[in-house]
UniProtKB/TrEMBL annotation, chain A:
Domain Pyruvate flavodoxin/ferredoxin oxidoreductase pyrimidine binding: 19-238
Keyword Oxidoreductase: yes
PANTHER family, A to Z: PYRUVATE-FLAVODOXIN OXIDOREDUCTASE-RELATED
Protein name: Pyruvate ferredoxin oxidoreductase
Entry keyword Transferase: no
Species this protein is from: Marinifilum caeruleilacunae
Pyruvate:ferredoxin oxidoreductase core domain ranges (all copies): 263-366
Superkingdom in the source lineage: Bacteria
Keywords of this entry: Oxidoreductase, Pyruvate
Lineage summary: Bacteria, Pseudomonadati, Bacteroidota, Bacteroidia, Marinilabiliales
Gene that this polypeptide is encoded by: porA
UniProtKB/TrEMBL annotation, chain B:
Species for this entry: Marinifilum caeruleilacunae
Superkingdom, taxonomy of origin: Bacteria
Protein name according to UniProt: Pyruvate synthase subunit beta
Keywords, sorted A to Z: Oxidoreductase, Pyruvate
Keyword Lipid biosynthesis: no
SUPFAM superfamilies, A to Z: Thiamin diphosphate-binding fold (THDP-binding)
Family annotation (InterPro entries): PorB-like, THDP-binding, TPP_enzyme_TPP-bd
Classification lineage: Bacteria, Pseudomonadati, Bacteroidota, Bacteroidia, Marinilabiliales
Coiled coil, from the record: none
Domain spans labelled Thiamine pyrophosphate enzyme TPP-binding: 53-215
Automatic annotation (TrEMBL), chain C:
InterPro entries per record: 4Fe4S_Fe-S-bd, 4Fe4S_Fe_S_CS, PorD_KorD
NCBIfam families in the record: PorD_KorD
Name of the protein in question: 4Fe-4S dicluster domain-containing protein
Lineage: Bacteria, Pseudomonadati, Bacteroidota, Bacteroidia, Marinilabiliales
Xref: Pfam families: Fer4_21
Highest taxon above the source species: Bacteria
Essential cofactor(s): [4Fe-4S] cluster
Length: 396, 302, 97
């Protein structure tokens, strides 16, 4: 294979992935830290490197509405957003998945106001977990590029026809430069066939789309949507394999395990923090501690089987949440916990909430989490939900 | 832009026999459905219709009854203009030619919640004809006040009582707001003057880029008028000067109809349940507002 | 076909009988609207001058041109009376069903 490595940011890697996927229509509204992606795409359109209609929409709501419109005539589409912009799209996200339009979106994970913060956490996309989109979280720029290409293949699959959101941690991934391999266009064309869908308007076969359904039928449409999301699981695995066969990079589908084979204590996390966790694991493993990582790649569909399988093998599971559902716990934890509850075994669990509004999650903090899991296991403690990086004393 | 004279006129005699809005569940005598039906007959088979939440989408797409006999889609409420723009862009990118994308949105869907997207669509000059059928309130949800509800109107959110005489604001000046975008073509119309409406749709059909028509469309249910008078009342509105027929083209306003005398505003109002409560002073306020508007139009647009 | 016609709808028996997402054939009409009607339009063809004002203004598009005569699709006429009211020759009468 040709070696075509370039030093680019995560946002730029996304733009490269989009270019290679040849969308017909790109509609996006700028928001930090997504902006570099849409700037690069605009440049590519200007330079003739991309044959797409670039729509300068006046809001995120219009970005998602325009991409849905284009998808509804059978065009491949891309949009990108973050934080407040993603929330402004919220109506459209539900609309798009219900309409079964396989729009692909990049979301630069960013904190949600108030207070204002342009920096990263995952409260934006996790608060929209129920909007019916396939959600994948990536760990580095290469995975971001590769997942944009895979996203089209997964979302547009006839058994799926569901939109897909590729999530990158704001700044940590979007703005960090890495060496990224740019796949060959011909190979991508071969990997990603043209978009075909029965769910479109055409002059050969005129249709009415986006209709209303009475209570007699509404449940069936929602059942069908849920079924499509479950269908995505097989398609995700197959796509991962096909991608690895063609491009040599494998991401292991729904989750990726690191040092879990013989692990006693495992942390579960999404996105870029996984890189830091791996470093801590290497250190603790050298000290003889059997620690591991479960990197959840897909939050929807949720890797229930993978989590159950892990829980059967380990003694303690901690979940890092760059997110909090106020009045309860982190959303990733809720999901993991629900899967674990399906097996008949005691596993000590803990939820570590932090990294909010761009606060770094340090190696020391991660090591501390593993140690707390060991301690909890030993003392048979009650499970806990803990804000792990408060800078001040709390009232607890 | 194609010269008007070059466009063959569409009228009742020569228009397509094909119906594109049929079997819908609109109230009997619905003025909005007259506007949609006629516009689609002018635009023809190769049309994509986009409709936000509102009467025409609510009555046209109740699965499995599909009342649009050509391509049509319900859009997000605030995003009809953007979704239509996306349709136009997608179809163009796929190499389709010789088609039109049209929005049919109500007064609330246009002047209120859909306005931002509409402004963006015109700014980008997307190849979309946006038709606002104005029945002067949120009718689909049960007659609530919108930005185009006229002064004095009784709606379910502007009840007329001892303290407040119904709606206390005047209609937003939608036509001039749209024209202020320097849009290629904008017009006002009324289903009471159907040939004028057909002509304007026909003209807009030949615009490459954004165009806009604001058509006055009666609502017997919301207005408290007999179903058979739907066209007559929409004509009365023009004849008494509360609704005007105009165009904005190549940067110039044109008043299509400039009657020497207006018919009685009071007669027009008193025919409708929604205005029955209005006091003489309130009617006078409506007339004064009308006169001011006409003075300005006659000074600037003739 | 100038107008969509009433079509039988097969009630789905299996989830796969549903369309993929909310999309269906344009102009598919399993229901008629005739039941809404209290008064029906009756045309006096001797008086009718075939000006087509009724054809133009019918909110439901139910008036057809039929070899120089107008004809009404009674499956979809709701009986609003616009045609009768707008007729310059009073050639359409609204009669109780």
């Amino acid at each position: 294979m040709k070696n075509n490595k370039v030093f680019i940011s995560g946002d730029e890697a996304v733009a490269q992935g989009v270019r290679l996927s040849r969308p017909h229509v790109v509609a996006a509204y700028p928001i930090t830290p997504q902006t570099i992606t849409v700037e690069r795409l605009s440049e590519m359109v200007e330079a003739g490197e991309m044959d797409a209609e670039y729509m300068h929409v006046e809001s995120e709501h219009s970005a998602i509405s325009a991409t849905m419109g284009a998808s509804a005539v059978g065009a491949r589409t891309f949009t990108a957003s973050s934080s407040q912009g993603l929330l402004y799209m919220a109506e459209g996200l539900h609309y798009c998945s219900g309409g079964r339009w396989p729009v692909v979106m990049m979301n630069a994970n960013r904190s949600v106001a108030l207070p204002w913060s342009i920096y990263g956490d995952q409260r934006d996309s996790l608060s929209l977990l129920d909007s019916g989109w396939i959600q994948v979280y990536v760990e580095d720029a290469q995975e971001a590029l590769d997942m944009i290409i895979q996203a089209y293949k997964i979302a547009e699959h006839k058994d799926v026809l569901t939109p897909m959101m590729v999530n990158l941690d704001g700044f940590i991934l979007t703005h960090t430069y890495e060496l990224v391999e740019i796949p060959d266009q011909e190979m991508v064309d071969h990997f990603l066939p043209a978009f075909e869908t029965p769910n479109k308007m055409s002059f050969e076969n005129p249709k009415n789309l986006g209709f209303s359904s009475r209570p007699d039928d509404n449940t069936e449409f929602k059942y069908q949507q849920n079924e499509a999301m479950f269908n995505a699981i097989d398609v995700i695995h197959k796509t991962d394999k096909d991608f690895a066969d063609m491009f040599g990079r494998k991401y292991h589908g729904m989750v990726e395990e690191y040092m879990c084979e013989d692990a006693d204590v495992v942390l579960v996390a999404l996105g870029s923090v996984c890189g830091t966790v791996r470093v801590v694991i290497d250190k603790m493993r050298a000290e003889g501690k059997k620690v591991g990582l479960l990197k959840i790649r897909y939050m929807r569909p949720f890797p229930v089987e993978e989590v159950k399988d892990l829980a059967k093998r380990v003694k303690a599971i901690g979940v890092i949440d760059k997110d909090i559902s106020f009045g309860y716990e982190g959303t990733v934890y809720t999901n993991v916990n629900s899967a674990i509850s399906q097996i008949d075994k005691y596993v000590f669990k803990s939820n570590f909430v932090g990294g909010l509004g761009g606060r770094d999650i340090t190696k020391a903090e991660i090591e501390d989490m593993y140690n707390k899991l060991y301690a909890g296991l030993e003392n048979k403690s009650e499970e806990t939900v803990e804000f792990f990086s408060l800078n001040v004393e709390s009232n607890d | 832009m194609t010269k008007v004279l070059d466009i063959p006129k569409v009228n009742a005699k020569n228009m397509t026999e094909k119906e594109f809005f049929y079997g819908h569940k609109a109230c009997a005598g619905c003025g909005g459905s007259i506007a949609v039906r006629l516009a689609l007959k002018v635009l023809g088979e190769r049309t994509y219709s986009a409709l936000p939440a509102g009467c025409m989408s609510a009555v046209g797409f109740i699965y499995p009854q599909m009342a649009f006999n050509s391509n049509a889609i319900i859009t997000t409420f605030p995003g009809s203009a953007s979704m239509a723009a996306g349709i136009a862009a997608g179809a163009k990118a796929l190499g389709q030619e010789d088609f039109k994308t049209v929005v049919f949105a109500g007064d609330g869907g246009t002047a209120d919640i859909g306005f931002q997207a509409l402004s963006g669509m015109i700014d980008r000059n997307d190849d979309v004809l946006y038709i606002c059928y104005d029945n002067e309130a949120y009718m689909n949800t049960g007659i609530q006040k919108s930005g185009l509800t006229p002064y004095g109107t009784k709606t379910t959110t502007t009840p007329a009582g001892q303290n407040i005489p119904g709606t206390v604001t005047h209609k937003k000046n939608l036509f001039e707001i749209i024209a202020a975008h320097d849009i290629q073509y904008a017009a006002t119309a009324s289903i009471g003057y159907p040939q004028d409406f057909l002509n304007k749709v026909n003209k807009a059909k030949h615009v490459k880029g954004a165009s806009f028509i604001h058509v006055y469309a009666s609502c017997p249910t919301g207005w408290g008028t007999p179903t058979e008078t739907s066209v007559e009342i929409a004509k009365d509105a023009v004849d008494c000067g509360l609704i005007f027929l105009a165009e904005y083209e190549d940067g110039e306003y044109k008043l299509n109809r400039n009657p020497k005398e207006f018919r009685s505003v009071e007669d027009y109002l008193k025919k409708q349940g929604r205005f029955k409560h209005m006091s003489d002073a309130d009617i006078q306020c409506v007339i004064e507002n009308r006169d001011k508007k006409w003075e300005r139009m006659r000074k600037n647009w003739l | 076909m100038s107008r969509p016609k009433h079509t039988e709808y097969q009630i789905p028996q299996h989830i796969n009988d549903y369309p993929t997402g909310p999309q269906y054939d344009a102009g598919f009409l399993p229901e008629k609207n005739a039941g809404w009607r209290t008064f029906k339009p009756v045309v006096n063809h001797d008086e009718c001058i075939y000006c087509l004002r009724c054809y133009l203004l019918c909110p439901d598009g139910t008036i057809m041109k039929d070899n120089g005569k107008i004809k009404i699709d009674m499956d979809y006429c709701k009986g609003c009376g616009v045609c009768a009211h707008e007729c310059p020759k009073d050639a359409i009468a609204m009669e109780k069903e």
